[in-house]
Write a structure and sequence with these properties.
Chain A: This is Fe-S-containing hydro-lyase. The complex is a heterodimer of chains A (183) and B (280). By secondary structure, chain A is α/β, with parallel strands linked by helices. Chain A has 6 helices and 7 strands. Chain A has a single domain, classed as Fe-S hydro-lyase, tartrate dehydratase beta-type, catalytic domain (fumarase). Chain A is globular and about 45 Å long. Classes of the chains: A alpha/beta (183), B alpha/beta (280). At the A-B interface, helix 5, strand 7 and helix 6 of A face helix 3 of B.
């Protein structure tokens, strides 16, 4: 099924998403990858507040190439989500609702998705030029010193993603591969 | 004796970094076009169409094909009758990378120390492999390598008794484990034989070979065909979301090895298999 989604993505929205659905996301989303996740985790360990509003938040695992003059961003495709698996359950328990990346997740992350009515979307890996066209604005929110790994707030329009793990824990990476496996 | 100045090397490397990150070689384009025609999954076909559209946008608007513009890997063939003037060749290559990645709006993805992890902010140092060859030319091959796929690469130190069946199993294991993480459809580079490090180097170099250029050892050629067919039967598909196009090519390099060993290295590359060669 194809559907359009507006952020913030709430439990009401995730309950209607199913593994395999093709979605177009519009609205504000946040960008964070390895080093930013490590810092957010350290902030939580020290009892500090997170630098992003985590309730019903959508995090895109991505590190863009630099923007040419007059453009909001450079190439902007998804990075491998499993590198954030160590930190994702904690953020999901704090209110994070949706993650956009590519690649497999651990059973712990899938459990946390189920527990919190979350969702894991995949964007097409290696299609950074195409995906950048859906990003209308980009602003560094914090951790500027991390360069490509800084936390950014994006405004996206009709950003194409596929539901891989839905709030019930159904996993497209497992089901779809079985369908075409002929070995 | 031919003389090449380091300034010429810097200029060429700079241009190669920018060009490699905006255009794929013709063989990659042809393989993608062919995959669009044969893919059996509807979603898979849709993803392959997006990849083609992505290449058009990258070219037309000068946006890197992938945001991971990679670590710059070089294979350099230095003719032994050539003289390089104006400094160290390695320094010139790194200077070309520095200029190319900065002026070309390419992502700087290199950290200077693997544990302290401070970004060097100019994508240096590059990874450079030198070969001394006959003649007086300098042949530079650049293959910017993203780490989504690099992270999924493997080395297997098999026993001689494992034989060809062991080799096949090793390749399939690496591809299965990589799955969606390596941004399929992928190109699979394999190195068989040599030593631990030689097999890895052969696997990486195999990724830079044009698909039309086939191996001349019959069993190697057969193995490439068989493994491509088997990998595509795994069902991983474009984006790892199911389908009949998991790999676009399997390129295998081989070398002599020791009586006690059978090293097999599998270096996986995503569909953004960038490589560019210039002969100076």
């Amino acid at each position: 099924m194809e559907q359009k989604i507006q952020t913030p993505i709430t439990s009401e929205i995730t309950s209607k998403l199913h593994s395999g659905d093709y979605c177009y996301i519009s609205g504000e989303i946040y960008v964070a990858r390895d080093a930013a996740h490590k810092r957010m985790n350290e902030a939580l360990n020290k009892g500090e507040e997170l630098p992003i509003p985590i309730e019903n938040c959508t995090i895109y695992y991505m590190g863009p190439s630099p923007a040419r003059d007059g453009r909001p961003i450079g190439s902007a495709g998804p990075t491998t989500a499993s590198r954030m698996d160590k930190y994702a359950p904690r953020l999901l328990d704090l209110g994070l609702k949706a993650m956009i990346g590519k690649g497999k997740r651990t059973p712990e992350v899938i459990e946390a998705i189920k527990r919190n009515n979350g969702v894991y979307f995949a964007a097409v890996g290696g299609a950074g030029a195409l995906l950048s066209k859906c990003i209308k604005s980009s602003e560094v929110i914090c951790y500027d010193d991390l360069g490509a790994e800084a936390i950014r707030k994006l405004y996206v329009e009709d950003f194409p993603v596929i539901v891989v793990v839905d709030s019930q824990g159904n996993n497209l990476y497992e089901t779809a591969i079985k369908e075409f496996n002929s070995l | 004796m031919k003389i090449i100045s380091t300034a010429t090397v810097v200029e060429n490397v700079k241009e190669m970094c920018i060009r490699a990150n905006h255009y794929l070689s013709e063989d990659m384009n042809l393989a993608l076009n062919k995959a669009v025609d044969t893919e059996k999954s509807e979603l898979g076909k849709k993803i392959l169409n997006q990849l083609q559209e992505n290449l058009e946008i990258a070219d037309k608007e000068q946006i890197p094909i992938c945001q991971d513009t990679g670590m710059a890997v070089f294979f350099i063939e230095v003719g032994q009758d050539l003289h390089i003037e104006g400094g160290l060749l390695t320094d010139a290559i790194n200077e070309g990378v520095r200029q190319g990645y900065t002026e070309g709006y390419l992502r700087k993805s290199v950290v200077g120390d693997p544990i302290e992890r401070i970004n060097t902010k100019d994508n240096t140092p590059a990874i450079i492999h030198y070969d001394l060859v006959a003649g007086d030319s300098l042949k530079i091959t650049l293959a910017p390598k993203g780490f989504g796929s690099e992270n999924m690469s493997r080395i297997f130190m098999l026993k001689p008794a494992d034989g060809i069946e062991g080799v096949k199993e090793a390749i399939l294991t690496a591809v299965k484990e990589a799955g969606p993480n390596a941004c399929p459809p992928m190109v699979v580079g394999v190195g068989i034989g040599g030593t631990f490090e030689k097999s890895a180097l052969m696997a990486k170099k195999a990724l830079t070979r044009e698909f039309s250029e086939r191996q001349n050892i019959p069993w190697v050629k057969e193995l490439e065909d068989e493994m491509l067919e088997k990998i595509n039967k795994l069902g991983i598909g474009p984006g790892g979301l199911g389908g009949t196009t998991t790999a676009l090519a399997v390129n295998i390099n081989t070398y002599a090895t020791h009586i006690a060993g059978l090293p097999v290295a599998v270096n996986i590359c995503c569909h953004v298999n960038r490589h560019i060669t210039r002969k100076l």
